[in-house]
Specification:
The complex is a heterodimer. Chain A is mainly alpha-helical. Chain A folds into two domains: 37 residues; 261 residues, MetI-like fold. In chain A, 76% of the residues lie in helices and 1% in strands. In chain A, strands 1-2 form a two-stranded antiparallel sheet. The longest helix of chain A is centred in the C-terminal third of the chain and has 39 residues. In chain B, α1 crosses α11, α3 runs antiparallel to α9 and α4 runs antiparallel to α5. The chains are: A mainly alpha, B mainly alpha.
Chain lengths: 314, 326
């Protein structure tokens, strides 16, 4: 009897240990396999001829304008695979999204942590969760079918789908991230800070703005970094609402195309093992590396702040 | 004067909350108003017709359901087991303390045990940060991984081993590979939530159980898991609802534009609500004609994910109030 129990215990210990290893194995596998399909760019002579770092980043076509010099036409007779228009598109959408979501998200977080009555706070939180729960394909649909039309009517854009439209919809999806992480940080600021500030005669807003917010600055900063990571990799919203035109342009009213949207739009029709295939995987690796760095950095900032706040409470 | 300035500033902050709520209401309101009208028994029970401009979305509902079930089977047991490993089997004192204890134990018996303990704590730290990072990897990269690993690597290898040369059964997009890809995506949510739930079970209960002679497994099964079940369920459901709405990872791992039949094997391709939304809104030959169908599909997809979310939130708030009263 006892032996059976001990054996069962030993088996389950083994099962759980293996499970613990699986998560770690998969993150390495993800890295290895995205990178493995990119590798021909550096090793395969056939692929290298067409797709290489120089062609991606520096090589320019002849032409007077930027749009003619840096071109993404991977399936034309002479493939042109400059990533400049695509990276520019990614940055444009990301910047518009962050410019919208960061100030509003932080302001909302500051309001609900410092000024909102508890009843109201209990309404805000589930609403933010609801917003976070909207699948990005639905957000993309909304931006494409509804928002784009409204914006064009209001501002008279030449192109219905452009960086402002796509960036705004992206910003809607970023709001919950900025809000949630900032709010956590603001709520973690010890009461003593606020009381000391009131005792010195500061008003409620002065306290919130000059004492609580600076104390939570690392968390707020981290929320921006994590929102950036999400924005860079977001796919469906940009694929649907960005206009899908890889143009080298700094204008926010031109259509755009992002790294993620390019992968999504072209991977379906590509020949496995071709230069185009490796190029798309290269974009994936780029996304993976950038988001990995920004997420690790964001998590580090949050953990550092948690440790300090715990120290302050003790 | 000061007080008036305060009022203005606080009102400005409040406006940002109003703006967020307005965005939410406009999006959901728009979809409900246009989508609810498109719903009918025919819409949810018939396949699409006439080049996707008429008919219903029955195959997409079935495909999504099958995908979500398979994904759950793959992600939840693995995620829960990983969390149990992290929380119940690795040293609770953390890496820094475990390492310091090992360093301080020079020339004393039991040093090897302390070293293994520190090693285990190191592994736990790495796993936790890997999980945190996995949560931030863009979903399209999961799609690339699904294509590169599950289909090109694993699938092709199975084909080579089991099929006639040139036959492709496993080495192409399918329900199975899409579900595996989505499972990876939901894994971090499940792991983090489960660990949090395990943390709410008081340490005393574990010690009491062990003191009565129960093995560690018996303690986990009879004491820890029952106590943390609602939290685990919540995490699992929230993860599943995220996975149910994701489209980017299944773009090239098995979602089909249109299928005249329902999937009946795990190696079949499938239709999917989210993918159907993408197709209807970007590749429709007649945008105005498909609009009601499109809104209807979005409505069903949104209802599905919100229903899952709501279930999770309700379980969580119930547990919270129960914890408060006890």
């Amino acid at each position: 009897m006892t032996r059976g129990r001990l054996a069962r215990n030993a088996i389950m210990t083994g099962v759980f240990s293996v499970a613990g290893w699986v998560a770690i194995v998969f993150i390495f596998l993800i890295f290895i396999f995205t990178f493995k399909e990119t590798l021909p760019i550096f090793t395969d002579p056939e692929v290298k001829k067409e797709a290489n770092l120089e062609a991606f980043f520096t090589k320019a076509q002849p032409g007077p304008t930027l749009a003619e010099r840096y071109v993404w036409q991977p399936t034309s007779e002479v493939p042109k695979v400059s990533l400049i228009p695509i990276i520019l598109g990614t940055l444009k959408a990301t910047i518009v999204g962050l410019l919208f979501a960061c100030p509003i998200g932080v302001a909302a977080a500051l309001f609900s942590s410092e000024f909102a009555p508890p009843k109201l706070r209990e309404v805000i939180k589930p609403c933010i969760e609801l917003l976070a729960g909207i699948p990005s394909v639905v957000m993309g649909f909304f931006a494409l079918i509804v928002l784009a039309t409204w914006l064009q009517k209001a501002f008279g854009f030449v192109y219905r789908l452009n960086a402002i439209n796509a960036g705004l919809a992206l910003g809607f999806a970023l709001l919950p991230i900025v809000y949630t992480i900032s709010e956590d940080g603001l709520a973690a600021v010890p009461r003593a800070h606020r009381e000391a500030s009131y005792a010195l005669g500061a008003t409620r807003f002065q306290t919130a703005w000059r004492v609580v917010m600076p104390a939570a600055a690392p968390a707020i900063f981290a929320s921006f970094v994590l929102a950036f990571g999400r924005a860079i990799g977001e796919t469906m919203i940009l694929l649907m609402a960005g206009g899908n035109a890889a143009i080298t342009s700094f204008s926010l009213t031109d259509p755009l195309r992002t790294l993620s949207a390019t992968i999504a739009a072209e991977m379906g029709e590509v020949v496995v093992g071709s230069a185009h295939y490796a190029t798309l995987f290269f974009m994936g690796t780029l996304l993976f590396v950038v988001t990995f760095i920004s997420n690790t950095f964001g998590q580090m900032v949050i953990r550092g702040m948690q440790r300090r706040m715990q120290g302050a409470k003790a | 004067m000061n007080r008036i300035g305060d009022r203005i500033a606080i009102t400005t902050l409040a406006l940002s909350v109003v703006l967020i709520l307005a965005i939410l209401i406009v999006i959901i309101g728009n979809i409900v108003i246009h989508g609810a009208g498109a719903l009918s028994w025919e819409f949810v029970s018939q396949p699409p017709r006439a080049g996707l401009t008429e008919g219903g979305i029955f195959p997409a509902i079935v495909g999504t359901a099958a995908l979500v079930i398979l994904m759950t089977i793959a992600a939840v047991p693995l995620g829960v087991a990983t969390a149990i490993y992290l929380h119940e089997y690795t040293p609770a004192e953390g890496l820094a303390l475990a390492w310091a204890r090992f360093r301080a134990s020079k020339n004393r018996p039991g040093r090897r045990k302390l070293f293994l303990r520190a090693l285990s704590a190191l592994l736990a730290t790495i796993t936790r940060s890997a999980v945190a990072n996995l949560a931030g990897v863009p979903s399209i990269v999961f799609g690339l991984f699904g294509l590169g690993f599950f289909i090109q690597f694993v699938g092709r290898a199975i084909d080579r081993a089991t099929q006639e040369p040139g036959e492709v059964v496993w080495g192409q997009g399918s329900l199975l590979w899409a579900a595996c890809t989505l499972a990876l995506l939901t894994l971090p949510t499940v792991i983090v939530a489960t660990e949090e739930a395990l943390r709410t079970v008081p340490q005393d209960l574990r010690e009491a159980s062990l003191a009565l002679g129960a093995t560690q497994w018996e303690t986990i099964r009879r004491v820890v898991l029952p106590g943390s079940l609602p939290g685990i369920l919540t995490g699992a459901i929230l993860g599943i609802s995220r996975g149910a709405g994701e489209v980017a990872p299944i773009l090239f791992t098995g979602a089909a534009y249109y299928l005249p039949f329902l999937p009946h094997r795990i190696t079949d391709q499938f239709m999917h609500l989210g993918y159907h939304v993408l197709i209807l809104s970007t590749q429709s030959p007649d945008v105005e004609a498909t609009k009601p169908l499109l809104y209807g599909t979005v409505f069903v997809l949104l209802a599905l994910t919100f229903l899952l979310n709501l279930t999770g939130v309700v379980i969580r708030s119930r547990t919270r109030s129960r914890l408060k009263t006890s």
